[in-house]
Amino acid sequence: MARSDGGGTGPVLWTPEALAAATGGERAGHGAEVLSGVSIDTRTLKAGDVFFAITGERSDGHDYVGAALERGAGLCVVSRDGQSRIAAGLPADASLLVVEDVLTALESAGRAARARTAARIVAVTGSVGKTTTKESLLLALGADGPTHASAASYNNHWGVPLSLARMPAESRYGVFELGMNHAGEITPLTAMVRPHIAIITTIEPVHIAHFSGIEGIADAKAEIFTGVEPGGAAVLNRDNPQFGRLERAARAAGIGHVVGFGEAEGAEARLLSVALRPEGSAATADILGETVSFKLGLPGRHIVQNALAVLAAARLAGADLALAALGLAALAPPPRRGVRTVLHVKGGDALMIDESYNANPASMRAALAVLGNTPVGARGRRIAVLGDMLELGDVGEDLHRGLAADAAEAADLVFCAGPLMRMLYEALPPNRRGGWAADAAALVPTVASALRGNDVVMVKGSNGSRMGALAQALIERFHAEGGVGAEG
């Protein structure tokens, strides 16, 4: 399998000539004749990479071309305007590819990389679970042959073309994550990826502030179908209320093969049995008529649910289903998505589950369910530390209050940070209230003083609520060790 983290010395990914042909750029100077990786960040750039000097909201990549060359970049893609601005500070023979617009050139490179490969391509979107599903596909398909997948959550207007441009021509499978905050954002991404198989994990009220309702979110996710290759398939959550709407959209886009996954009658990828365990799960499923048993290295029913989609996609892509099922056992949590860390607190050790990457009502319920299923030691408690869920619009307060029953069932104590989480905190039974603060930083001392040996504490909130900083503060305060575990 391939982990596309930037490139570096290795097999030839591009030649300058091929990149010039793909982008319509003009070469200047002298540099490497083969390029082994693609980068947009000098901090992770490796010798032999091509560096695309993208202009972002906060920085201009042209300001880092000199640093890229010093780090061994084999070629730097710059705009015509940018070249004239930085020329005085570069060596006369600096290896450049001059284009009209760098992001457009990256998109062109991505399309060219997609066009040159015979790989079977799977694209994943959905309100929750995209990254974990992408990582699961990397493991499942990677067990059958060379598989390329995007790094981290590279699912936006620059992340998708960057991930495509990094795809080796000889890949057997490719896996790409497509994200959106607004309608219309997935259409250009799926047009670049041109998947053979499109997965929508689920539809939930995420980013609902930008939509008139849940149906609008479903329609925006359904844009993925517009790029599916002729004869391709859609894999949809049969248990989700929006299944019918998505199925109609898929068929309207010309997709004749729609596969439902879940526990409902009629699901072609159907869960038959499951044993949910604190560190993972074991399950048996019917995948398109074939019974398969598998284990997962992450806990949670939602992880099992999405594994059904992964196995269905593997089968549709022509991979060996038994090998794909075996590959799932190696699933591990990405950073801040369920990583477990031991904290040395008063009276012994406590376990922290860091779920601080992001949050919405569906993922919050899933994380609370994992917390509720995690065993504690003698006199230990299950503790939830929760930050605001953002981009929920006018229904935000109600959605926070609506989590009170789940939080009270899963946790012995609940600590909350932020004005929206005040709604949840006040809806809790008094014996479940651990403390509330206006923001994550203010909550740190309260949580730290409450922790004791044998506790399990789960930290979760939207990125903007800065719960990741709270989790890191606990690690620093209690000299933590470890860092293994599971996603919730």
Structural descriptors:
single chain; 488 residues; Udp-n-acetylmuramoylalanyl-d-glutamate--2,6- Diaminopimelate Ligase, Chain: A, domain 1; UDP-N-acetylmuramoyl-L-alanine:D-glutamate ligase; Protein-Tyrosine Phosphatase, Chain A; 3 domains; ten-stranded mixed β-sheet; 33% helix; 24% strand; globular
Describe this structure in words.
α5 (130-142) packs across α10 (301-316) and α5 (130-142) packs across α11. The protein is an alpha/beta fold and 488 residues long. The protein has helices spanning 16-23, 65-70, 80-86, 102-116, 130-142, 159-165, 186-193, 214-221, 243-252, 301-316, 321-327, 361-372, 396-401, 404-410, 421-427, 440-450, 467-477, and strands at residues 2-4, 26-28, 37-39, 49-52, 75-79, 96-99, 120-125, 147-150, 173-177, 197-200, 233-237, 257-262, 269-277, 280-287, 290-296, 339-345, 348-355, 382-387, 413-417, 433-437, 456-460, 481-485. The chain has three domains: 2-103, Udp-n-acetylmuramoylalanyl-d-glutamate--2,6- Diaminopimelate Ligase, Chain: A, domain 1; 117-330, Mur-like, catalytic domain (UDP-N-acetylmuramoyl-L-alanine:D-glutamate ligase); 339-485, Protein-Tyrosine Phosphatase, Chain A (Alpha-Beta Complex). It is globular and about 70 Å long. A ten-stranded mixed beta sheet has the order 1-8-9-7-10-11-12-13-14-15, sandwiched between helices. Strands 20-19-18-21-17-16-22 form a seven-stranded mixed beta sheet, sandwiched between helices.
